[in-house]
Write a structure and sequence with these properties.
Chain lengths: 809, 236
Amino acid sequence: MDTLLQNLRFAFRSLRKSPLLTGAVVLTLALCIGATTAIFSVVHAVLFRPLPFAAPEGLLLVWETWQGEDGSFSVGNWADMKRADRSFTDLVPMRSVSYNLAGTDSPDNVPAARVGSGFFELLGVRPALGRTFLADEDQPGRGNVAILSDGLWRDRFGADPNIVGREVRLDGQPHTVIGVMPAALDYTLMNEQLWVPTAFTPERLAEHDEHFLFVVGRLKPGVALAEAQRGMDGIARWLQEHFPEDNTGRGIAIKPLIGEVVGDYRPRLYVLMGAVGFVLLIACANIANLLLARSAARSREIAIRAAVGAGRGHIIRQALTESLLLAVAGGVLGVMVAYWGVSALIALGPEDVPRLGSARVDGIVLLFALGLTLLSGLVFGLAPAFRMAGQFPHEALKEGGRSGAQSGQDRLRSALVVAEIALALVLLTGAGLLIRSSVALSGTNPGFDPRGVLAARVSLPSIGYESAERVQQTFQRIADRLAVVPGVQSAALVSRAPLEGGGSNGLIPEGRPLDITSTINSHFRLVTPTYFETMRISLVGGRTFTAEDRGAAPRVMVINETLARQAFPGESPIGKRIACCESGPNDEPLWKEVVGVVNDVRAQGLGEESGPEFYLPMAQAPTAAWEWIQRSMTVALRSSGDPMAVAGAARVALAEVDPTLPLYNIGAMGDRVSDSLAQSRFSTMLLTVFGGIALLLAAIGVYGVISYGVTQRTQEIGIRVALGAQRNDVVGMVVRHGALLAAVGLLVGLAGALALTRLLSTLLFQVSPTDPPTFAAGMAILSFVALLAATLPALRAARVDPVVALRNE
Amino acid sequence: MALAIDPLIRLNGISKVFHTEEVETHALSAIDLEIRAGEYLAISGPSGCGKTTLLSLLGLLDSPSEGSYVLAGEPVSGLSQAQRARVRSRAIGFIFQAFNLIGDLTVYQNIELPLKYRGMVPEERRSAVHGALDQVGLLHRINHYPAQLSGGQQQRVAVARAVAGRPLVVLADEPTGNLDSANGAQVMELLAELNRGGATICIVTHDPRYLDRVQRAVYLHDGRLVSDQPRDREVA
């Protein structure tokens, strides 16, 4: 203990003697450990922090698969699966819905979920207030009960402790609040803010055609994932045999819930974690280099210690104490940087990253920071410590003696710089690829013109809007009323605007067998006739809808170019017929005539290729469609100025149709397009910053090694000048050393980048992970910076006075 | 190596003043010195008398504060740094007390270095290096590194490096200072042999034993040339 204290005291004194070096090292460490810890706290919050459920590893999401993609369940398939299953304790359905919430100060529409009665028991979550659903509340006509999320309870009900038993109106229908869930459940699954029972009718339970359910299950103890999957494969075959018209080609897939919650964000966050780790490694290499130079300068002091009896172990312990003291100082400051960094990441991060808001510097993150600090101290401290202990005291004590370790030390320092350059190249190429990807993404034509368009949702409650006719008429009145709002150039309604997702339907082009094998799964939108004009979606052929496309008129549809190619390859689709969405009284197909083809719209996001898509006129909406879209439509208003300026007038216009209807999710389409790039922009920005820091650190590394080399070689340079070397010869010699380091580093880095940029492939858009121009640019930038960093000491070398050659020390 | 121009070196009124933090140090004052081609000259004197400064001026490593320096008929005291470097690489060979071989280069590469700086073509360089190494008896060590040689061998390599380019004058700064007496005597004999072959040699030494081997000795004291006398040369 005494020795440790003595070592610490000496380390402190020794570091205080070189305040500049100590300050530079501590600051570099603080920034790098801080950044790494901040990114880790986000990774931990989003990916690693257990879901707020009991034994979350046993929870699975169960998907229906169709043409290789995961999709939602039909109610009938779920009910049959639940009956046949032997592997799960329960399989509970969940459906994303939204409700107009009245009974509070400000009526609004809130995202909600309808769930099976065992939902919370399956998750293992107990309510903070009240109780969960009883089995008999999950029955038709008895489901007028609701459970609130903690956020909704606080925001809309002022955290009323007597909320249980109070009545709220959801879509105008009275519901009794029976419980409030704990805060941990907020923003965990589908961002839902309240829950009501599914309460399926017997007719719905026999329905195998419409697919809109998520299913959550928990494996029985002792059942392996593979075994459960085999059971599901058997059930899928049974469903195919018994309901071939709906299930041919469909399978069932089970996946861990946590992976499904954070799946899309995993690669992006891992890339950021890797990148910031690289930056820390580069910083450690730089610090190791600084300490190696310092150990060379202290060789005499070490020799004296060795001469008076200090063993190798003593010297190593002393050197490591100094390194660890530096690391701890950097780590303590780094934690402060991390606190600030986490707040910045939450503020700047995309809003849709699940659980990002819960990121914080907690015990586990502090433990990580401590581990990182000690590891960093060892990484940058070990080489200098062993180097110091390896010096020969008799060499160091000789007057002007040349250390036998000199060239070995140079090699080690050079190797560290080579590693820095290699790591920096990996980061630079990664950042370059993401930048190119971002540029390509933001330059992508979305297929519509978002400028000047306001989008907002309107939902009609089931009570008061029971009939399809009334729903359709109300939406038509809303459309008509909005069209005459002052400032609005064009108004339209659409079931889901671009970037809002939306449902899909199977359709069969005329002439193909009328079975599921001919089905083309295609996104569908109900629109008013002015939709294409409002969104400025171009007509490629035929016509768009008119007011005449209604009721008894021939059924029509407009399709996009992708669907036109898939349904009628090599032919004009205009006038051709497609069956979809509804059947006649004898279950015969109802054909719709393709009257127009419009350009593809990037409906799921700028980065996702357009799929097949079709539009139906709202006035010819199939009766079931209102249930599919839950009587909700998006209002699109094009105006000449700021689109948000017409929001107020639009609210007033809507209130004139029905004062109880809220206009919600109001936003400019331009902002939504921009928001859809937020994830890409965020990771690109962070990786670019990390790449820039890596470049700077690598430049400092090259400068440090070359500059130290010049100092060490002053006499050699003097000799060379005395022997006739010109200024250019000296500059060339020094710069060549830098160039050699850079070249080796670039070669190693190139191999590393080729291997590692593949990990970015899921984040790239229209750019290959081995894009030659990006690699070339990364190498060119790094070469230029390395040569520049080497040129400064080279110019100093060129000024060496040849008279030093005559000096004997 | 001897040149028809006589004297080969002429210094007139050479002074060297060093300025450090408002202190002026007169290292050399009013030195007049002529060295004939083929001459073997020693500069001696006590420590701090200005011997090394004079050698650095003779070797164009530094320029005088005052006075003129004519080398082989050409005035060189006002040359730029780059011009001095060019003249050095062609006309002057250096031998240093601490050998000053470059540790990372082989014996061959060390001797070749000034020839490269001079711009000599590779074939000529190879021939000159081999010739010089043969002259100092170390041809068998051509691919060794300095650290693999004894001190005496290192200094013989340094002599080879100094003479390989057949310079007008060889300047040696205490060439035996880091050697034991046997190796020191060997190196001095080598220099005498070179001089007998016609080389102009100027050495700085304070070892009286070696003054007997030169033709002429100049003595410096406090930066002034106080004596300039021919010596009876001892024949080995």
